[in-house]
Prior knowledge:
The protein has 13 helices and no strands. The chain has helices spanning 3-27, 33-58, 65-88, 94-101, 104-114, 124-138, 148-174, 177-199, 204-209, 211-232, 238-245, 248-260, 266-299. The longest helix has 34 residues, at 266-299. The relative contact order is 0.23.
Amino acid sequence: MTRIQANLLLLLAAAIWGGGFVAQSTAMKAIGPFWFIGLRFLIAAVAVLPFMLRESRKATAKTSPRHLTLYLLTGLALFGGAATQQLGLQTTTVTNSSFITGLYVVFVPLIAVVFLRRSPHWIIWPGAIMAVSGIYLLSGGQLSALSTGDLLTVVCAVFWAGQITLAGTTVSETGRPLTLSTAQFAITGACALAVAIVTEPISWEAIRGAAPEILYVGLFSSGVAFSLQIIGQRYTTPSQAAIFLSSEALFGASLGALLLNETMPALGYVGCALMFLAMLLVEIVPELARRRALQGLKSSPNLG
């Protein structure tokens, strides 16, 4: 897979997640947040399991204790992100949630610098600033009073950044994207159900009431989109992946306006343009630099 194809997969994942914001918000009318998280991710784990087993039969490298640790850490990061995002949606709008979640485009390169001692391509920094500015304009630039849900979603963005970074590292070491998907889904679902059993009431009526949202988010936002994310990240960098995945805010805000009558301010269209420009720059600039380097190698004299 080329880097362009990988980034297009990440863009598709972001579009599916944008629809997931709406489903996550409307589901709260019928079911508690942790029951919702637990059921959606268990459905996702079951959906991906057959493909994981097929992948395992073809794998050549054995799973090491380090791989298991990485699976666990990625799953815990996913649980942290899913929990804080879902709790935040109880007291914030879909538009605000999708905006604030997009802050992971800043946190991912910061994690790469601080923890991995890895400097990203220079275009990542202006691209990240443009993307965050675009997401901010998408909200109308009026987030003057942060609610509890907004603050929880800031924490969510940190967890998503950790999950994106860990997923990129894990899949590059293991070469098993579907195994990672199944593992992180199962870990997140188990953690959420453990919390739900203790803290939230449940009934069959509640499950039936939220069934369409659970199925959509479980099969598509979780099973399909997270798998696309992990597959795509095999062929691009975590920082570039974060830029493309951040477009979920664009899709989330648009669908929130269309389906939930949430308004998009005029500045939102400027924000959309900034986000797409950031994605184009992150895609085109490294590619042009790579081609120039290859041309330089081909044109240099052979001294051997």
